[in-house]
Specification:
By secondary structure, this protein is an all-alpha fold. The chain has one domain (2-289). The chain is 77% helix and 3% strand. The protein contains 13 helices and four strands. It has helices at 2-8, 19-45, 48-58, 61-85, 90-98, 100-112, 118-134, 147-173, 178-203, 216-238, 241-247, 252-262, 269-289; strands at 10-11, 14-15, 136-137, 142-143. The strands form two sheets. The protein has a two-stranded antiparallel ribbon with strand order 1-2. The protein has a two-stranded antiparallel sheet with strand order 3-4. A hairpin with a 2-residue loop joins strand 1 (10-11) and strand 2 (14-15). Helix 1 packs antiparallel against helix 5 (90-98) and helix 5 crosses helix 8 (147-173). The longest helix has 27 residues, at 19-45. It is globular. The model has no long low-confidence stretch (mean pLDDT 76).
């Protein structure tokens, strides 16, 4: 839904709404969801007043700064994703971002100190090979996208991988609950996106105003990002960053079909084989973890 809505919400070759404003609203929605879940959990355990005092006393400048840095990385990557969808179809972006499993595995091993088995590395290697096959046109002997698009996507993949591992480590090691960390992160997210909108409006007087250009599709972008952000943090807590990146590859089947029908993605035997390899890698990795 995220990839499709990003693409269909474009007007010509641009967005009619402020992407900064859209994410500011998304961050406020996520903050509200996290605060509600926090209140529900703590009210049942000890009461809200005592819970807030405990949370406040456990916060340190180091905790807040680490969460703020993570929020800044997500802010940068979110805006970069909007930029990418102006230059490529959803299937290509999702396929290449699914390849972040290899980079995530390396970062995960270094920062989390967790071993990745030989079978898991083989599954990741199969997935990367499948992604390469899908993006190569043997008839023209060229890649499907321009080099600049691949470089931007690669940068986004590195940012996604690093922020994902960082987020997982913080959630599992920081002496704050998932909802407490989320509330702080989404507060910073709303601040960063709000400042981004104000800065762009000051630099470019033709930049959309905060609520300008919002349509049903724009609110769809806000809604899916709100749900997605909260769900991903739960995935990091109860699973890990590699599983998240591998599991996201499952959506390639649907996105490939949709991109073929609506966004000019070439559906050939070669691309079908590449997508199949990508999906098989997910199940091979899951089997190896068992």
């Amino acid at each position: 839904m995220v990839g499709i809505l990003y693409k269909v919400s474009q007007v010509g070759s641009r967005y009619a709404f402020s992407t900064f404003a859209a994410f500011t609203m998304s961050e406020f929605v996520k903050l509200g969801i996290s605060a509600s879940l926090y209140a529900k959990d703590r009210k049942e355990q000890q009461g809200l007043a005592a819970a807030f005092r405990e949370t406040y006393s456990s916060l340190t400048p180091r905790h807040v700064s680490k969460i703020a840095i993570l929020s800044a990385m997500y802010f940068s990557n979110n805006q970069l994703t909007f930029f990418l969808f102006l230059r490529a179809d959803p299937a290509s972006i999702n396929l290449l971002k699914a390849g972040s499993s290899a980079i995530t595995a390396m970062i995960w091993t270094v920062f989390m100190g967790r071993a990745v088995s030989q079978q898991q590395w083989l599954a990741i290697g199969l997935q990367v090979c499948g992604l390469v096959v899908v993006q190569y046109n043997p008839c023209t002997q060229q890649a499907l996208l321009a080099l600049s698009a691949y470089l931007w996507i690669l940068f986004s993949v590195f940012l996604t991988s690093f922020s994902g591992v960082w987020n997982e480590k913080q959630i599992k090691t920081m002496p704050l609950s998932l909802h407490e960390q989320n509330m702080i992160m989404y507060t910073f997210g709303a601040l960063f996106n709000g400042l981004g909108h104000a800065s762009m409006a000051n630099i470019d007087h033709g930049f959309p105003r905060f609520f300008e250009g919002l349509t049903f599709l724009s609110f769809g972008v806000i809604a899916v990002n709100s749900c997605f952000g909260v769900v991903v943090t739960a995935v990091f807590k109860y699973s890990n960053a590699i599983v998240k990146t591998l599991a996201s590859a499952v959506t390639t089947v649907l996105l490939t079909a949709i991109s073929f029908m609506f966004f000019g993605f070439p559906l050939t035997i070669v691309s079908a084989a590449g997508c199949t390899s990508t999906i098989l890698a997910v199940f091979l990795y899951a089997s190896a973890t068992d």
